[in-house]
Amino acid sequence: MGKLARKVAMIGAGMSKFGQHFPVKRNPDLWVDAWIDAVKSVDNGIEAKDVDACYVGNFTADLFNHQGHLGPNMANLVGLTPKPAPRFEGACASSGIALRQAILGIASGVHELIAVCGIETMSEVPTTMVTDALAAAADATYEYPAGATFPGLYAAVASAHFHKYGTKPEDLMRVGIKNHENGKENPFAQMQQSIKDIMESKIKRAESQGQQVPYWKDEIDFLSSSANPYIASPLRLFDCSLITDGGACVFLASEELARKFTDTPLWITGTGQGSAALSLHDRDTLTSFIATKEASKQAYSMSGLGPKDMQIAEVHDCFTIAEILAMEDLGFYEKGKAAEAVKNGESRRDGVRPINTSGGLKSKGHPVGATGAAQAVEIFKQMRGRAERNRQVKFDVERALTHNLGGSGGTCVVTIYQK
Amino acid sequence: MGKLARKVAMIGAGMSKFGQHFPVKRNPDLWVDAWIDAVKSVDNGIEAKDVDACYVGNFTADLFNHQGHLGPNMANLVGLTPKPAPRFEGACASSGIALRQAILGIASGVHELIAVCGIETMSEVPTTMVTDALAAAADATYEYPAGATFPGLYAAVASAHFHKYGTKPEDLMRVGIKNHENGKENPFAQMQQSIKDIMESKIKRAESQGQQVPYWKDEIDFLSSSANPYIASPLRLFDCSLITDGGACVFLASEELARKFTDTPLWITGTGQGSAALSLHDRDTLTSFIATKEASKQAYSMSGLGPKDMQIAEVHDCFTIAEILAMEDLGFYEKGKAAEAVKNGESRRDGVRPINTSGGLKSKGHPVGATGAAQAVEIFKQMRGRAERNRQVKFDVERALTHNLGGSGGTCVVTIYQK
Hints:
2 copies of one chain form a homodimer.
Chain A: E1 8-15, H1 27-41, E2 53-57, H2 61-65, H3 70-77, E3 87-89, H4 94-107, E4 113-120, H5 127-134, H6 150-165, H7 169-183, H8 195-208, H9 219-223, E5 230-232, E6 235-236, E7 246-254, H10 255-261, E8 266-275, H11 290-303, E9 312-314, H12 320-329, H13 338-343, H14 360-363, H15 371-383, E10 399-406, E11 411-418
Parallel strand pairs in A: 2-3, 2-4, 9-10
Antiparallel strand pairs in A: 1-7, 1-8, 4-7, 5-6, 8-11, 10-11
Helix pairs in contact in A: 7-12
């Protein structure tokens, strides 16, 4: 893969509140919320007339809302008709792909300023239908008819990682604990509670209802109890990300135009995308995602940077095991070493390389098609020193990375941001 | 919109046979058929290792096959794992968008050689479900719940055109007659029969079955009879395109690389994309598609050419009225003048500007997500003098255009090709 023919800048980014919004808000409302939040983030202001295309990332409004053809729909809502409005899909990496294609679109010389839209509404349909729709991201020929759902597929990945590297259930729990601590500080997150908060609220509820009060000596003890039921062993409820509605919006611009909107554009210096066979049984290994390795190799090569240069990262923790895999496949840690780093607090927001300061998919929520764009929103905030509450990292972030995964690693998009 | 930062060439293109292939062939098989046909079309040969990405256009395998995340799936089948494999969607313009994004991807400097895949399998589900799935390309908030299907929406467009410009049912029939004459000469077409052939076979069947033998004085008379039932007045059966399974593959390359594969690359000198509100009731007019006007304006401007320069075109005749609209909105004719041009034979393959020499969606077939890429296949053949049977136009084609529409004009992609 070659270099970008011209520089691309991120000049603004915003998002809707993530959560379960149906029936009060649906895709159109959440996208407009995100658009308004992103417009506010642009230093010198921005209007629809400044934007020359709307790149929409969405996994499957077809199945969730019986609405395909989302591009023109989203563009029209914010005054962008009749401008180009393509939709991009790569399961949960859909808006990561939209972001990447917008980078290429600007580098190509054709576009000057693109609004990237990530959008998904999952709570309109019952949970079983959500699981069924999500399964369309896995292989429909072998995996889906066999009853494989995503918790099941990631459980296989976790089991293999446990077997090969000695990873333990507690290692996964620590990922969730950290991400909930971060999500607690994010006013846009779906679950703004730490695992400790959740544990204590359960104790209080038992007390207030006159039931037997459970005793848990710490969060790990709580997460190891029946209060955290198995979804697909070894994955329990708190190893899984959430069913979420949400939208995100990112403004990308050419170098010339970026200066008009802000004195401090953030540069996108690396983009990479990789793919893998959809079926786990077609892969060489379950403990590493080839799509992540390929995407990060391309992005590092383009930016001239390596994993050690990345100061913060938003990674795709659709399940806690996925964060462990990402930390390793992105080259932050050797294979089998990420769990120890989590235990040592290295990925906490006061650690050496904070990961998922937003709360991640685990706590911020995971409106699948919106997640990739929402990761860029967090990077925008952290690099500009605008992260809310107590979530802002304590150092100046000059280099950051986002990692957006589709399905059980069938697609990966990696993006590198620099000041 | 700006210019392409570097030149982009089409170096090969091929397709599967279009038709109803289920259960013998499904998406994977049809894509591999298309890939093999495209590989054969490359003068100096091509292998998977030469290709650095797979750009997949598909409308809704989610609804037709419960398979989203088609990018990595298609890439894997032809040996492109772990390369980037995004999927693009804009209803029936899905692979037109894939083609456009591939053009931008190469111009961006990131990609050198991209395989564009257009794919759709529609015959796996019953016809009523096809109609239902296609309706996801219309507006799901107002149009779909009101029972509006695509024949109904285009019937409204046709009625408005009749009212405003005096267009008549016979004008639409002549579009179908011409396209079937072309499709008869296309070995890849779903219906390789002229309307006359169909009429005569109905007469023969009546004779052989001892039924009353119908008398039709010509094709117009036949198409005006009850043998051509109304689908949504004024549109009859032979005004509608087909339910089709099919795949198409186009290889695009940078200038440097193109020379390695062929001495006669075809250059893509213009690309444009436009959008409109999905709902007809949100439009200013029913007799013109703003998305087509916007897309063609961008493409003409980029190429420095105008409508008069286009020697042949493949336009999106999902319904016969759509070809009339396209001829006008692309600037080939003034509004209200296209029907007369069709009557005069100007768009026949021996006319002044042949349109849909492939047979168009009407006769070649319309596997929705594959159509945009398949249009480029026909242009490749005509420009290289390789159109089969009696379909090759009699002059040297130096400049050509494709017009790919999504939904009832919600998306349009226009591409301009030059020698």
